[in-house]
Amino acid sequence: MPGSAERSHGLADLLRGPVDEVAPRLLGALVSHGDVVVRLTEVEAYAGPADPGSHAYRGMTRRNATMFGPPAHLYCYFTYGMHVCCNVVTGPEGDPSAVLLRAGEVVEGIATARERRPGSSDRDLARGPARLCNALGIGLDHDGNDLTAGPVLLVPGEPVAAVSTGPRVGLRGAPDRPWRFWETGHPTVSTYRPAKPRLPRPAG
């Protein structure tokens, strides 16, 4: 991996600009933790107060505070009471934009990833945001991690040949915004699922 100064400079360039422009640039980037390295194949953009789908839409909370901090840090959160997902914070400090890391291909440390996800095919080791964190060994304790210093690192990779875009997965807020980006045709890209409709509350 490059040194910290080189990583910092490279990430600053990669993460500069509106989040929907930054997100597709992360395709092909490498996320590493310990001996496991995942090459990103699918991401989603979230634009903070301008985005009803974002955790930061209604302002800062204890849960989402990392999104309001400096870019190139990891925002981790717990979902469905059992899974951890992670995002790369983008934009200037105070502008809580972030890119969800949805899926990737394990390119190093596959034996460790298989131990963490027994029974999964190699294609599925990091196919989906919770699986990606599981394969890399990322937990809530990595929230706020500086991606230029570690222990979780992010390094720009070779740009992908073709990028597809479509609606983000499982959202009720801004469900049609085409801010999910993936490497066209890559087998590790997760399956699109729209949000389940909310059932009306019973009267009385």
Concise synopsis of the structure shown:
By secondary structure, this protein is an alpha+beta fold.
Low confidence ranges: none
Quick one: overall form?
Answer: globular
Strand content: 25-35%
The radius of gyration is 16 Å
Overall description:
- The chain is of the alpha+beta class and 204 residues long.
- Strand 4 and strand 5 form a beta hairpin.
- The longest helix has 11 residues.
Topology:
Layout: H1 4-14, H2 19-25, E1 30-33, E2 36-46, E3 74-79, E4 83-90, E5 97-108, H3 110-116, H4 129-136, E6 153-155, E7 163-166, E8 180-183
Index terms:
single chain, 204 residues, alpha+beta, 8-stranded antiparallel β-sheet, 4 helices, 25% strand, globular
